[in-house]
Amino acid sequence: MFALGSAEIGAPHHDPIRATLLSTVATLIYDRLIEQDVDQSYHPHLAESWENSPDGMNWTFKLRQGVRFHDGEPFNAATIAWWIPKFKGSPNEYLVDAVDRVELVDDYTVRFIMKRAEPNLIYNLASSFMGIPSPKAYDAAGDNFGVTEAVGTGPYKLESFAVGQETVLVANEDYSWGSDLSDNKGAPHIKRLTLREIPDASTAFLELKTGGVGLLLGVPDQFLPQLQAEETLDFRSLPGFGITYLAFNTRAEPFGDAAVRQATALAVDQGAILKSVFNGVGLEAHQFLISTLVESKIDPKLEIHHDLAKANELLDKAGWQRGDDGIRVKDGKPLKIKLTAQSETAIKRTAEIVQAQLKAIGMVVEIDIFDSTTVVDQLKKGQHQLAVRQYGWNNADILDWFFSTTNIPYPNSSGWQDEKSQELRNVAMQQSKTLDERVANFRKYQENLIGNFLFVPIHEPVQNYAFNKTLLEVPEKLRGTQLVQATTVDIKVVG
C-alpha cells in the first residue's frame, strides 16, 4: 500500500487527456512516447527514437513494436493519429497545439507536421498528461473513462477507483517494454498495489511507521529528522520541481522602485533559511529556475545572493534614511510593508525569518497569514505588497507564466510590464526553432528578469519518498521526474 503526496490528492479521474490534476496512478497505467529523467534528459519509451527537422517544422517518431494495451488492442502509428486530435478542446490542448497534423509514414512511424516550430514539444510529450490510452476503450467509455475504467499500455491495470480515497492496481503480467529508466523491463514485482489518499501528513507518517502503508510519496522536510530516528524507516530524495520565493507587487509602493526591490532581495539570507526552516534539506535558490534545467546556467554574477552592506547602501542612495528607532523613512513615510503567507508550517516559518532579516535594513514587516485560496485571491486582485510563494514546474516556460504581460493580473501578480522583457519573452517562447536556441533565449529572458529584481529566490526543495524497510526494498538510485513506472516496477516486497 502506498500513500500519495499532498500535491497528488484529489484527482477526480485518471483520464490524462481531459485531466487538470493527475496522480502517480496515471504514470503506472499509461506509457508515454518519451520519459524524462531527474537530470531533465529525455529517454525513449513507446517512441524508440525521434528526429526534429532543422527548421523545427516536423518531428518524426519511430515507434516500439510488440506493444499492446491492457484490452489486447495493438499500439501502432494509427494510435498516434487518433490520439493527438483528441486533445482539441481539452484542458491540455496547449501541449500539442503546435501540431498541425499527424502523418502515418508506415505502421510504426509517424511524423508531426507543425504549425510552428516548437522545440518544447519533447518536454510536453514527457508530461504525465501525455499518457496514451487505448483508442477502443476510450471511445467506448466516453466521460466514464478514467473513472470506471482506464486502459493503457503501462505496467499496471486499473482494478478499482474510489474518488478521494484510493486506487487499486494489479500488475500487467504481459509488460515487457519498460523504458531504460528501469533496471527491470518486465512486469512489476508488486502484483497488487493500493494507492491511498491521506490528506493529513501526520496521519500518513504514522501509517508508514506502523506498517499501514509501505511507501509515502512527497514527505515534508520537517518529517526527515523523525524518519532518520526510526530504524524501520528510510527515504530517498530526488531533485525538486520548483522553488520557494518572495513575490513583489511592482504596482504597490514601495516596490515600484527597483532599488527597494533589489535591497530587499539582497537582505534575504538564503543559507540561514535553508538551515532553520528546511533542516538543510534541498538547495539555496539564487534564481527563478531549478538548478537541473540547462536554462538555469547563467552568469553566476547575475544571481541574487545575500549582501547586507549593499542592501543598506541602496536604500541610503534611494533616500530612505534611518530614524533613531532604526526604521527607515522617506518623505515622512516609514518603510513598512505587509508580507502575505500561507498557514503551511514551512511557509509561515520562512515569513518569520524574512521578517527578521528585513529588519536589519530598517524595514518593518507585518506578516498576514491566510489560507491558500485567500492568498491567491489577493494576488489576483493585486492587494499584496510582498508574498511568500512556491511553484512546482520543471520547465523554463515558468518564466512566461509568472512574468509575461499577457498574464496580468494573474499569474503575473507582480504586474510587471516592460517592453524589453516582453520582447525577450516573445523570442524565447515563439521564435526558438531548436532546443539550443530555446535554451539561449530563455537564459537571456531570465537574466533580464533577475536584473529587474522581480522576485527573491529562497529555497529549492527536493522530493522525498519514505518507505518502511520491513515491507519494501527500494533501489538506492531513483530515476524519473516523479515516481514513474520505472521506479515502481523496480520496487520489491521484502521476503
Automatic annotation (TrEMBL):
GO MF terms held by the record: peptide transmembrane transporter activity
Domain Solute-binding protein family: 42-402
One cellular-component annotation, GO: outer membrane-bounded periplasmic space
Subcellular localization, as worded in the UniProt entry: Periplasm
InterPro entries documented for this protein: Peptide/Ni-bd (IPR030678), SBP_5 (IPR039424), SBP_5_dom (IPR000914)
Protein's GO biological process: peptide transport
Entry-linked Gene3D superfamilies: Dipeptide-binding Protein, Domain 3, Periplasmic binding protein-like II
Pfam families: SBP_bac_5
Source species, domain of life: Bacteria
PANTHER family: PERIPLASMIC BINDING COMPONENT OF ABC TRANSPORTER
Family: Belongs to the bacterial solute-binding protein 5 family.
Protein name listed in UniProt: ABC transporter substrate-binding protein
Organism: Aminobacter anthyllidis
